[in-house]
Design goal:
By secondary structure, the protein is an alpha/beta fold. It has four helices and four strands, in the order βαβαβαβα. A four-stranded parallel beta sheet has the order 2-1-3-4, with helices on both faces. It is globular, with a radius of gyration of 17 Å. The model has no long low-confidence stretch (mean pLDDT 93).
Length: 162
């Protein structure tokens, strides 16, 4: 029996991608957004097929993602935000809850969501990572969208027939 190896491509031609961007720590999130958009377009995603949604902070990202996913109009979503450690426990709450919420939405809707919500000790770390993380998120979203399509194409028939 021959095994199957499916690998997604980062070709964005024809894909519809949604971005949810937190406004909190705007200097960082604007850099994330810029590099993500540049990468999506460089990979062939038509600018008209990119939807940007702005939310106040990282905790609001999962709800906006869920609403977008529910429309069925997106092949992949991307979460962009920055949570920077402060002097209170709030950093842990926001970091963990936003990440858990993003994962829940992806699993509930069977939709690739690239999580580029940075969690850093300080603003300098966040700024140092923002450009690369924005690019990485775009590439992950595109590759996973293609992989999901490949899995559906390969195995999407009625399983009782096999």
């Amino acid at each position: 029996m021959k095994s199957h190896r499916l690998v997604g491509s980062a070709d964005g031609d024809g894909l519809h991608v949604g971005l949810v961007v937190s406004r909190f720590n705007a200097e960082v999130t604007e850099q994330l957004e810029r590099s993500c958009l540049e990468t999506l377009q460089a990979q062939g995603v038509d600018e008209a097929n990119i939807t940007l949604v702005s939310v106040p902070g990282a905790l609001e990202i999962p709800l906006a993602l869920a609403q977008m996913a529910e429309t069925g109009r997106f092949d992949a979503l991307i979460a962009l935000g920055a949570v920077i450690r402060g002097e209170t426990y709030h950093f842990e709450v926001v970091s963990l809850e936003s990440a858990a919420g993003i994962s829940r939405v992806a699993l509930e809707f069977h939709l690739p969501i690239a999580n580029a919500v940075l969690t850093t000790e300080n603003e300098e770390q966040a700024l140092a990572r923002a450009q690369q993380k924005g690019r990485d998120a775009a590439m992950v979203a595109l590759e996973m969208a293609d992989l999901i399509f490949s899995i559906d194409d390969q195995f999407g028939e009625d399983r009782d027939e096999h």
